[in-house]
Design a protein that fits this description.
The complex is a heterodimer of chains A (92) and B (431). Helix content of chain A is 40%, strand content 0%. Chain A has 92 residues and is mainly α. Chain A is globular. Chain A has a single domain, classed as ACP-like (Non-ribosomal Peptide Synthetase Peptidyl Carrier Protein, Chain A). In chain A, 35% of the residues are buried. Chain B folds into three domains: 120 residues, Acyl-CoA dehydrogenase/oxidase, N-terminal domain (Butyryl-Coa Dehydrogenase, subunit A, domain 1, Orthogonal Bundle), CATH 1.10.540.10; 99 residues, Butyryl-CoA Dehydrogenase, subunit A, domain 2; 164 residues, Butyryl-CoA Dehydrogenase, subunit A, domain 3, CATH 1.20.140. Chain B has twelve helices and seven strands. Classes of the chains: A mainly alpha (92), B alpha+beta (431). The interface between A and B is medium-sized, with 23 and 24 residues.
C-alpha cells in the first residue's frame, strides 16, 4: 500500500480509523480494502456524509478538527484524511 | 403546446428593465385575479389548470427569467419571488407549477450548454416549453443529491430509462430536467442532470394525483425513456451536485417560499376584508383576543417575508462574487439560511393560515366558501412541509449548525457575520 503524500513518514491508517471510515462509504464493497489514493466521493461520500464522518472520527479518536482543516482537500482521499488526522493528533 | 402565439408583448420585451418589471407585476396581478376565479374548480376537480397555464404561456410569464437576448423578459430572482407571491395569492397550484418551471429555467440559463440554451430558451420565452422537474425516485429516501437509475451508453449515445413517481405537471410539460446516476458503474452520489424534450421521449402514465391539497399540480407518476446526447447534460456529466448547490436548490427554495407566502398573504387579505365588513364586526363584537391573534399572523408573515428577502440578497451577493462553479454557495452559513428559509416559510405560512381559520371561525374559515377560501389555503399549504421534507432539511441543518462555530446569523443586509467555511466541497465542484 502506498500513500500519495509523505509516504516515508506517514504510518499506515489504523483499523480504528478505517472502521469509522467504512460506515460512511456506502459505495465501498464489503470486505474490500479502500485505496488510499481513491477519492472519498468515489466511495459515495457526499457533503453531509463528510460532516457525519468528521463528527464520528472526533468521537472515536478523541480529537477535534480545527476550523482551518475542514476543507475539500482534507476530505478528498483516504490518504489526505488520514494525513490530516495524524497531523492534528501529533500537534502539541 | 400553446395554441395561440405566445411570449411577451414585444413592446414590453423591448422596454427598459424598470418598465418591463412594472408591466410584469401589473400583468401578474391581473392573472392572479383571473386564477383566483378558477382556483376552486381546479381544486375540486383535481385537474391541471390548463387554462391558467395557457395564459402563462401566451403572456410571456414562462420566460420571466429568460435573458432578453433569447427573447425572454430578462428579469431576475427578486422579480420571480414577487410574481410568485402575487400568483400564489390567486391559485396555489398554478403558482407552484410556474415556480417549479422557473426553478428549471434558472438552472438551464445558468448551466445549460450554449447550443442547448440557444435552442430551448427562445421556445420557453415564446411560451412553447413548460419545464418539469424529475428528481424523486422510489428507494432513495428523498436524497436529492443521489440517484439510482443510471444513464446507459451505446453506439447511439445515451439511453435514459427511469421511474418518476411524482412529477408536477408531468403530463403537460414540454420538457423535463431529470437526475440520473452518471453511468451503470457510478456510485449513487455521482449524478448528472439531463434535459429531456417531451417529443424525444416515451412517457408512460403510471399513477394519478388525488391529494389533500395542491390538487391542481397534477403531480403524476410516470415512466420515462429517451435517447440523448452529452449535449443534453446540464452542467456536463456528473455535474448535478454543483448545479444543485449553485442554482437548483436555492432558486427552488426561493420560488416555493414565495408561492407559500403568497398563498398565506392572500388568505390574510380575505380575513382582513372580512373583519372590515361592518356587518361582520357588529356580529362578532370587539375582541382583544381577535386583535392579538391577527397581530400574530401578520407578524409571522412579515418575518417570513423579511427572511425571504434577506436570503435573496445573500444569494445574489454570493452570485456577484463568483460567476462560475458552486463557489461560495456551499458556505455553511448560506446553506443553513437557504435550508432554514424553506423550513421556516413552510411552517409560518401554514401556521398563519391555521390561525386565520381560528380567527374566521367555523362559518367563514372552516367552511368551503368562495368569499374566504381559507380551507383550500389550509389544505394547499399542508403540502409545504412535505415537499422536499423539512425533516430531512432539519437533520442537515442540525449537522451544519455544529460546523458554524461563529454562528453567522443572517443579517438584515443579507450578509452573514461569520467566516465562510465551505461545505467540504471538492475543487471539481462536487459538494
Amino acid at each position: 500500500m502506498t500513500h500519495t503524500t509523505d509516504s516515508a513518514t506517514q504510518p499506515e491508517p489504523t483499523q480504528e480509523f478505517l472502521g469509522v471510515l467504512r460506515e460512511f462509504l456506502p459505495a465501498l464493497p464489503a470486505g474490500e480494502e479502500p485505496a488510499p489514493e481513491a477519492t472519498l466521493a468515489s466511495y459515495g461520500l457526499d457533503s453531509l456524509g463528510s460532516i457525519s464522518l468528521m463528527l464520528a472520527l472526533e468521537e472515536t479518536l478523541d480529537m477535534t478538527f480545527p476550523e482551518e482543516r475542514l476543507s475539500a482537500e482534507t476530505f478528498r482521499t483516504i490518504g489526505s484524511l488520514w494525513q490530516t488526522v495524524t497531523e492534528i493528533r501529533q500537534a502539541p | 403546446m400553446s395554441t395561440t402565439p405566445g411570449g411577451a408583448d414585444e413592446r414590453v420585451r423591448d422596454a427598459d428593465e424598470n418598465v418591463r418589471r412594472e408591466a410584469v407585476l401589473a400583468l401578474a396581478r391581473r392573472l392572479s385575479d383571473e386564477f383566483a376565479r378558477g382556483a376552486a374548480k381546479t381544486d375540486e376537480a383535481a385537474a391541471f389548470p390548463a387554462a391558467h397555464v395557457q395564459r402563462l404561456r401566451e403572456t410571456g410569464l414562462l420566460g420571466l427569467l429568460v435573458p432578453t437576448a433569447h427573447g425572454g423578459l430578462g428579469l431576475g430572482l427578486h422579480d420571480m419571488t414577487r410574481v410568485g407571491r402575487i400568483l400564489g395569492a390567486g391559485c396555489a397550484s398554478t403558482a407552484m407549477i410556474w415556480a417549479m418551471h422557473c426553478q428549471q429555467v434558472a438552472t438551464l440559463v445558468r448551466h445549460g450548454g450554449e447550443e442547448l440554451r440557444s435552442r430551448v430558451l427562445p421556445r420557453i420565452a415564446a411560451g412553447d416549453c413548460l419545464l418539469a422537474s424529475i428528481t424523486t425516485e422510489a428507494g432513495k429516501g428523498g436524497h436529492l443529491l443521489s440517484a439510482l437509475a443510471a444513464l446507459d451508453t451505446d453506439e447511439n449515445g445515451l439511453l435514459l430509462e427511469r421511474d418518476a413517481p411524482v412529477v408536477t405537471a408531468g403530463l403537460e410539460a414540454d420538457a423535463y430536467l431529470v437526475t440520473m446516476r452518471t453511468g451503470p458503474d457510478s456510485p449513487a452520489n455521482d449524478v448528472s442532470l439531463a434535459f429531456v424534450p417531451r417529443e424525444d421521449a416515451e412517457v408512460a402514465f403510471r399513477s394519478g394525483w388525488e391529494t389533500l391539497g395542491m390538487r391542481g399540480t397534477a403531480s403524476v407518476g410516470l415512466t420515462l425513456r429517451a435517447r440523448l446526447t452529452e449535449e443534453h447534460l446540464v452542467g456536463g456529466p456528473a455535474g448535478f451536485p454543483a448545479v444543485a448547490v449553485r442554482t437548483l436548490i436555492p432558486v427552488g427554495h426561493l420560488a416555493w417560499c414565495a408561492v407559500w407566502l403568497g398563498v398565506a398573504q392572500g388568505a390574510l387579505r380575505h380575513v382582513v376584508g372580512l373583519l372590515r365588513d361592518p356587518k361582520v364586526r357588529r356580529e362578532r363584537g370587539r375582541s382583544d383576543l381577535a386583535s392579538h391573534q391577527l397581530a400574530r399572523v401578520r407578524l409571522r408573515l412579515d418575518a417570513a417575508g423579511a427572511f425571504l428577502g434577506a436570503c435573496l440578497t445573500e444569494y445574489e451577493e454570493l452570485d456577484a462574487l463568483d460567476s462560475a462553479g458552486p463557489g461560495r454557495h456551499s458556505d455553511v452559513a448560506f446553506q443553513l439560511h437557504i435550508n432554514g428559509l424553506k423550513v421556516e416559510v413552510s411552517e409560518a405560512a401554514f401556521g398563519a393560515v391555521d390561525d386565520l381559520v381560528q380567527i374566521a371561525g367555523l362559518r367563514y374559515g372552516y367552511t368551503r366558501s368562495p368569499g374566504t377560501p381559507l380551507e383550500r389555503a389550509f389544505r394547499d399549504l399542508r403540502a409545504a412541509r412535505l415537499m422536499y421534507s423539512n425533516d430531512r432539511l432539519l437533520v442537515a441543518n442540525g449537522q451544519l449548525a455544529l460546523l458554524d462555530r461563529e454562528v453567522g446569523l443572517l443579517s438584515v443586509d443579507g450578509t452573514s457575520g461569520s467566516g465562510h467555511a465551505a461545505l467540504f466541497s471538492t475543487a471539481d465542484g462536487k459538494a
